[in-house]
């Protein structure tokens, strides 16, 4: 089976976010594999173990993303591809990423593509589904279980806490939700083996794309932090009085009632 | 070891200058090193920490399960050769694993005793049959190991052991009798490295299995700290150990014992550095949250002073420890496959750096005691409560100054070994001391410039001269009886250790600054400036006390005059520098460089 994983390098979940000059400050920040993409890598390895084949991890980004690709290789992926846009693109959006990936997959024949449900940085959740549309293959989002039998694929997906069971066919794109699996830690032998696994680097040129072809369709106007949380208020007195006071505050002060 | 002359000699830092490029620093870690550290960290926070309370409660089934999982990840095989089922990584990798395990409290002892003093005797000194039989299973965690040297009557005096071994009549087994005390991992270890005297005199190491007849363990000890590790007595009552389980040469067990202890010492220092970093993180985070007088206590200068002092000290120790790891890596790396399989060559390399091992052990364990003490203090009354991690860290820290050789014994080892090396002509200490005496009368004080680290290099240069002045005088004055002047020896050891730490911090910072400029390494510069100034003050005090003890009258006045010349300098404003250090720590929320 030709198994592909879409992977994004994101801020570590423990990073404190600050903004300077209208951009998110990335000086000295730690980066990780987007946690939802980690589920995708893990599931891809599990599918390979069960059905054979090869796992290729693909990312669009700059050279720094090599670290995250190496980590995926250390977990057990076989190959990785970095589509390096550093020299060609200043800004990009989901459209940009999808167009690049579309061109990449036109030259390859995936049986299944696994992606994260959403990236924890920009959280659009668009790249997976939009890519599937352009490749004209079915997609299922937020999956929590998958089993493949020949061409038939049975999936459980998370629908706001409920489970929906879906039957579909290969080739297919899925996006992975928490609960699908417990991603493994890269083992020490895995880390040493990853050094020797292929990490192919290509540019949009190699995909016969021009800058204009992938120009962003959206423009980010402003980035700002959420308002700082105010200190809470403790309402004193008997329960009856407390309730009255609370209702009055909700009506008059915060105007939510 | 034909090219031993090219190897950096142990203790040579005291009399020679070292180039920054020649030392290994944490900035040299590769991507693989970082990934190995990350896997270890994720394993500790994801799998071990949720079980720590249970393990502290002696529910050791969790320890066993976690050790198996650690084995699957390769975390038990870093020092084990590939042909025996290990991962065979460099010393930096295994050191990073040790550092990251430190956060697991007592469980880190279970891991450390297994991979270190438990497994390494077989890795370094086992024959190929022994390696084949034990190492693959030790690397996976199928078998767990322990190290049994201490006895009720013999701790630091290891060769005073009472445990005996006698060959049986058939010549097939040694029969061991005796008790080994405070054995880490004893509740569940399958393999014990045991030292016993054959026929009451030939001190020899044995691989003893729990399943051998006559082997048992006593009840679990009730300890002050590291409660998450198992500690019991190993009881040998006519224990029958097959002759093929003699480890190394008969009568030469001390070679194994002392060299394994050396390795244990620098590994202990690595763990101490790891824990000190955790103490800083907890302190900074707590101090930013805790408010008194409507102000986070982190904004009080005294709190800043505490975290900055601990951090600067951590930086110096971290630099010294990884420099030592680098020395082992460089010298072990020179050994051929054949030499690596021959215990003698390995023992020579380890013994070469006995001074560095003892120094990092002493200074690392005292750094950690300082760090956890201040962490509890910053937490105030909460730090005294068991719900807070610092309470456990405070208790866990104390043993580090005692085991792997008390800090007193380790301090004695330092000047003792220096003198030995000087006598053998390996280190030109006496020559340099003599030369110094000649030049000191005409020596003019220098004015170092303002460029980064100029002042620190100047203080380092003078600190080395002070060391020669004090040790030269002590050797001259006390001669053969120097070993009875323990207070003076401790001063000399402390001066030596301060110099090793100072130099390691300075060279590490220089290496980083040379590579990408001073601006990028402002925190490293601050740590170095503060540590070097404070260390230099301590060196001056130790030297002064030593001179006063050894000399009197006009001679003393002359020696003190020389010391004054060597200590003349414009001191750094450490109060200001520490406030600057704390800004960085606050922003990062943890120790950072």
UniProtKB/TrEMBL annotation, chain A:
InterPro entries: ET-Flavoprotein_bsu_CS (IPR000049), ETF_a/b_N (IPR014730), ETF_b (IPR012255), ETF_beta_N (IPR033948), Rossmann-like_a/b/a_fold (IPR014729). PROSITE patterns: ETF_BETA. GO terms for cellular component: cytosol. Gene3D superfamilies: HUPs. GO terms for molecular function: electron transfer activity. Belongs to the ETF beta-subunit/FixA family. This is Electron transfer flavoprotein subunit beta.
From TrEMBL, chain B:
Residues 30-142 form the Acyl-CoA dehydrogenase/oxidase N-terminal domain. GO terms for molecular function: acyl-CoA dehydrogenase activity; flavin adenine dinucleotide binding. The keyword Oxidoreductase applies. Residues 251-414 form the Acyl-CoA dehydrogenase/oxidase C-terminal domain. It catalyses: a 2,3-saturated acyl-CoA + A = a 2,3-dehydroacyl-CoA + AH2. Its cofactor is FAD. Pfam families: Acyl-CoA-dh_C, Acyl-CoA_dh_1, Acyl-CoA_dh_M, Acyl-CoA_dh_N. Residues 462-565 form the Acyl-CoA dehydrogenase-like C-terminal domain. Keywords: FAD, Flavoprotein, Oxidoreductase. Residues 146-238 form the Acyl-CoA oxidase/dehydrogenase middle domain. The keyword Flavoprotein applies. PROSITE patterns: ACYL_COA_DH_1, ACYL_COA_DH_2. It comes from the Bacteria. InterPro entries: Acyl-CoA-dh-like_C (IPR049426), Acyl-CoA_DH_CS (IPR006089), Acyl-CoA_Oxase/DH_mid-dom (IPR006091), Acyl-CoA_Oxase/DH_mid-dom_sf (IPR046373), AcylCo_DH-like_C (IPR036250), AcylCo_DH/oxidase_C (IPR009075), AcylCoA_DH/ox_N (IPR013786), AcylCoA_DH/ox_N_sf (IPR037069). PANTHER family: ACYL-COA DEHYDROGENASE (PTHR43884), ISOVALERYL-COA DEHYDROGENASE, MITOCHONDRIAL-RELATED (PTHR43884:SF12). Belongs to the acyl-CoA dehydrogenase family. This is Acyl-CoA dehydrogenase.
């Amino acid at each position: 089976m030709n198994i592909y994983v879409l992977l994004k390098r994101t801020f570590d979940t423990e990073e404190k976010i600050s903004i300077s000059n209208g951009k998110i400050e990335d000086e000295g920040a730690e980066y990780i594999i987007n946690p939802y993409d980690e589920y995708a890598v893990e599931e891809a390895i599990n599918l390979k173990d069960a059905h054979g084949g090869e796992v290729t991890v693909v990312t669009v980004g700059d050279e720094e993303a090599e670290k995250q690709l190496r980590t995926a290789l250390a977990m057990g992926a076989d190959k990785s591809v970095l589509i390096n846009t550093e020299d060609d693109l200043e800004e990009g959006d989901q459209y940009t990423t999808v167009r690049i990936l579309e061109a990449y997959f036109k030259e390859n024949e995936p049986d299944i593509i696994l992606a994260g449900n959403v990236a924890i940085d920009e959280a659009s959740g668009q790249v997976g589904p939009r890519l599937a549309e352009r490749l004209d293959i079915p997609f299922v989002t937020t999956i929590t279980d998958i089993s493949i039998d020949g061409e038939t694929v049975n999936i459980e997906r998370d629908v706001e806490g409920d489970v929906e069971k879906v039957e579909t066919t290969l080739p297919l794109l899925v996006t992975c939700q928490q609960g699908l699996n417990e991603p493994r830690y890269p083992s020490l032998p895995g880390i040493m083996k990853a050094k020797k696994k292929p990490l192919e680097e290509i540019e949009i040129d190699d995909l016969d794309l021009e800058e204009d072809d992938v120009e962003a369709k959206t423009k980010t106007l402003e980035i700002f932090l959420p308002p700082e949380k105010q200190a809470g208020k403790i309402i004193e007195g008997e329960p009856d009085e407390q309730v009255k006071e609370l209702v009055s505050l909700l009506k008059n002060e915060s105007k939510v009632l | 070891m034909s090219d031993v002359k090219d190897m950096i000699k142990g203790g040579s830092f005291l009399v020679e200058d070292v180039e920054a490029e020649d030392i290994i620093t944490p900035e040299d870690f590769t991507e693989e090193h970082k990934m190995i550290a990350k896997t270890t960290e994720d394993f500790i926070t994801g799998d071990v920490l949720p079980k720590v309370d249970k393990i502290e409660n002696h529910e050791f089934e969790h320890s066993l399960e976690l050790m198996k999982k650690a084995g699957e990840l390769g975390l038990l095989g870093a020092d084990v050769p590939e042909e025996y089922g290990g991962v065979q990584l460099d010393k930096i990798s295994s050191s990073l694993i040790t550092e990251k395990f430190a956060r697991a409290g007592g469980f880190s002892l279970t891991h450390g005793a297994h991979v270190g003093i438990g497994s390494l005797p077989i890795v370094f000194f086992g024959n190929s049959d022994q390696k084949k039989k034990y190492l693959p299973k030790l690397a996976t965690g199928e078998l767990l190991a322990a190290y049994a040297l201490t006895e009720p009557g013999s701790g630091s005096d290891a060769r005073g052991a009472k445990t005996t071994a006698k060959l049986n009549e058939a010549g097939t087994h040694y029969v061991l009798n005796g008790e080994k005390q405070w054995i880490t991992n004893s509740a569940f270890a399958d393999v014990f490295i045991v030292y016993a005297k054959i026929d009451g005199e030939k001190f020899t190491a044995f691989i003893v299995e729990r399943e051998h007849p006559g082997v048992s363990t006593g009840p679990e000890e009730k300890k002050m700290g590291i409660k998450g590790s198992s500690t019991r007595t190993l009881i040998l009552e006519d224990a029958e150990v097959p002759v093929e389980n003699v480890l190394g040469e008969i009568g030469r067990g001390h070679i194994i014992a002392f060299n394994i202890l050396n390795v244990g010492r620098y590994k202990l220092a690595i763990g101490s550095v790891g824990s000190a970093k955790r103490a800083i993180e907890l302190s900074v985070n707590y101090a930013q949250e805790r408010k008194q007088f409507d102000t986070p206590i982190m904004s009080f200068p005294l709190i800043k002073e505490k975290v900055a002092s601990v951090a600067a000290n951590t930086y110096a120790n971290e630099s010294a420890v990884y420099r030592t790891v680098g020395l082992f890596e460089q010298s072990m790396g020179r050994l051929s496959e054949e030499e690596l399989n021959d215990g003698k060559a390995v023992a020579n390399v380890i013994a070469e750096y006995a001074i560095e091992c003892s120094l990092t052990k002493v200074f690392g364990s005292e750094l950690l005691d300082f760090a956890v003490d201040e962490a509890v203090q910053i937490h105030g009354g909460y730090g005294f409560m068991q719900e807070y991690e610092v309470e456990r860290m405070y208790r866990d820290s104390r043993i580090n100054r005692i085991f792997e050789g008390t800090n007193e014994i380790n301090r004695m080892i330092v000047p003792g070994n220096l003198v030995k090396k000087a006598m053998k002509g390996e280190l030109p200490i006496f020559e340099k001391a003599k030369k110094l005496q000649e030049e000191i009368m005409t020596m003019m004080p220098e004015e170092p410039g303002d460029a980064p680290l100029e002042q620190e290099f100047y203080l380092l240069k003078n600190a080395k001269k002070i060391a020669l002045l004090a040790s030269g005088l002590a050797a001259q004055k006390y001669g053969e009886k120097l070993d009875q002047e323990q207070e003076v020896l401790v001063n000399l050891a402390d001066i030596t250790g301060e110099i090793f730490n100072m130099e390691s911090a300075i060279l590490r910072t220089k290496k980083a600054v040379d590579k990408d400029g001073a601006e990028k390494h402002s925190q490293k510069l601050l740590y170095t400036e503060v540590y070097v100034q404070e260390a230099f003050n301590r060196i001056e005090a130790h030297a002064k006390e030593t001179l006063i003890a050894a000399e009197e009258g006009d001679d003393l006045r002359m020696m003190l005059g020389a010391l004054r010349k060597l200590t003349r300098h414009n001191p750094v404003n450490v109060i200001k520098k520490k406030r600057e250090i704390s800004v960085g720590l606050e922003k990062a929320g943890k120790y950072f460089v």
